[in-house]
Design a protein that fits this description.
508 residues, alpha+beta, Gyrase A, domain 2, 58% helix
Length: 508
């Protein structure tokens, strides 16, 4: 029996140039992401007229087909019909799944490559990251409502939520290894080495013979600066320099470490005897990679993370206008970044802020602008006389309420141009307010209203604990009003083509 999306998938495969034109296919929240050998063989016009397809995008060296929230089911049907490997490549001659790269496709720029790496590594974890963040927010909420943190319910839920963030390098080690095409368990083992309790607690006080002993630092680099890092042990005489909190919840060190591991593994594999490859290849890879991570990659990553956090704190620290300025830029540009997939570049920055500062301003400001987007869709839906456009607006508005704005962007506001600009203005004004009031998040959360729990300050009580939620809701209301009013005022119905052609003939 044919599946619900089989016909749609056959149309998509045919109009991306056939399965023989597909190098690989993956997906994100709303898009099928193809890497094609020759994008000129794809037929954008037919795809965009196909029911079930919202928009076609060329971005990050990918051919992206936006299909909305049903993307999971459509992707599964696409893999079955096209015989594609999930996230993998297909043979250039037969179109069947293969493990190595096959055709290379079009060369991508540095920024596109970087974003492709970031999205490929972090995207698979987003669902669990969001779920864990929501649980941490729920824990903050029930503690705010009076439940003791010693209660078993609180402790168990918090273990789930905080556990994923604490051991995040292990999960990223797995996804990074898949991205860099090396042994996934080697990637995970590197992550385990980074969060091993003895190393994490190397500078923590310990009980020795009944007395509490605090380790003495053997030395410190960048003393009396925000980049100060000490070392408490050495490796072959070289200092093992670590940030105060170790590498739990970190992002950059594990990604760079696994990239290095992939290079070591690919170099050593041809020289490794088959009889001992099973254990010798991972052993050599780990013995080279893990020490270099602790000695070089980790400290350099710490400096980079510190510099990024200082940059954003410097903006926020500008007297009077700092927070508003950051909120203004994020609120205005987030939806633009979403179009090209460049919003992925800000996710690691937010994760760095959570791990180093304990809070983040970027995701908070971005949350507001989605409401500006759906307000613009609502205005178009109420103003338009086109039933076809109304039929697009209804589902786009509903999915937008739950935080998925791609259908709104590609199906409604961007094709109309002016509503998209008005939504960005609304997002900018609402984001500026939220930023000025200091709205922040304390971990990754869900989309739309599911993100609000992670805005509760777990270390505060009373209004101080929930003030970010209040400021964000007011910022969202501002974005809605500004975007709706501006779109309502500036909206113009497109003239039918026949009428436009007749007017040109009359003028002639």
């Amino acid at each position: 029996m044919a599946g619900k999306y089989d016909a749609l998938c056959r149309t998509i495969i045919q109009n991306v140039g056939g399965k023989e034109n597909v190098i690989s296919v993956a997906h994100c929240i709303t898009r099928l992401r193809f890497k094609l050998k020759d994008e000129s063989k794809a037929n954008d016009a037919i795809l965009e007229e196909t029911p079930g397809v919202i928009k076609v995008m060329h971005a990050q060296g990918q051919y992206q087909v936006v299909v909305g929230q049903a993307v999971d089911n459509i992707y599964d049907a696409l893999l079955a019909i096209g015989h594609f490997q999930a996230g993998g490549n297909v043979d250039p001659n037969t179109g069947e799944a293969i493990d190595d790269d096959g055709a290379t496709g079009e060369k991508k720029g540095v920024l596109a490559t970087l974003i492709d790496i970031i999205s490929g590594i972090i995207a698979p974890t987003l669902g669990c990251l969001s779920a864990a963040g929501i649980l941490k927010g729920v824990c903050a909420l029930i503690a705010f409502l009076g439940m003791p943190k010693t209660d078993g319910v609180y402790q168990l839920l918090y273990a789930i939520g905080d556990g994923f963030f604490y051991f995040l390098p292990i999960a990223l080690g797995y996804t990074a290894a898949k991205k860099f095409k090396c042994n996934e368990f080697v990637g995970m083992l590197i992550g385990m080495a980074l969060v091993y309790p003895t190393m994490v607690n190397i500078a923590s006080p310990a009980v020795v013979s009944g007395a509490i002993v605090t380790p003495t630092a053997l030395g410190t680099v960048f003393a009396n600066t925000p980049f100060a890092m000490s070392w408490y042990s050495t490796f072959l005489g070289l200092p093992v320099i670590m940030p105060a909190s170790g590498y739990t919840s970190s992002v950059i060190p594990i990604i760079v470490a696994v990239w290095l591991a992939s290079k070591v593994e690919h170099w050593f594999k041809p020289h490794c005897p088959d009889a001992v490859r099973l254990f010798l290849l991972p052993l050599v890879t780990l013995v080279i990679t893990v020490p270099l991570t602790y000695l070089v990659i980790g400290p350099l990553s710490g400096i980079i993370c510190g510099a990024i956090s200082l940059f954003f704190q410097a903006i926020i620290g500008i007297p009077v206008i700092g927070g508003a300025l950051l909120g203004l830029f994020v609120g205005a540009l987030w939806q633009v970044l979403v179009i090209f997939g460049f919003h992925w570049a800000l996710i690691p920055i937010a994760m760095i802020n959570w791990s180093t500062l304990g809070f983040d301003n970027i995701i908070a400001a971005s949350w507001v602008c989605s409401f500006g987007q759906i307000a613009a869709v609502l205005a178009v839906m109420l103003r338009t006389k086109s039933q076809k456009l109304k039929d697009i607006c209804y589902p786009a508005f509903i999915t937008g309420i739950f935080g998925v704005t791609e259908p709104s962007i590609y199906g409604v506001t961007l094709p109309k141009k002016t509503p998209f600009i008005m939504s960005c203005i609304g997002g900018a004004v609402g984001g500026a307010f939220a930023g000025a009031m200091g709205a922040v998040t304390y971990s990754m959360g869900g989309m739309s209203f599911f993100m609000l729990p992670v805005c509760i300050n777990p270390n505060a009580t009373g209004f101080a604990a929930i003030q970010s939620i209040v400021w964000l809701l007011i910022g969202a209301a501002i974005a809605i009003v500004v975007s709706f009013v501006l779109t309502w005022i500036t909206y113009k119905e497109d003239e039918p083509k026949e009428k436009a052609q007749l007017s040109e003939a009359d003028a002639a």
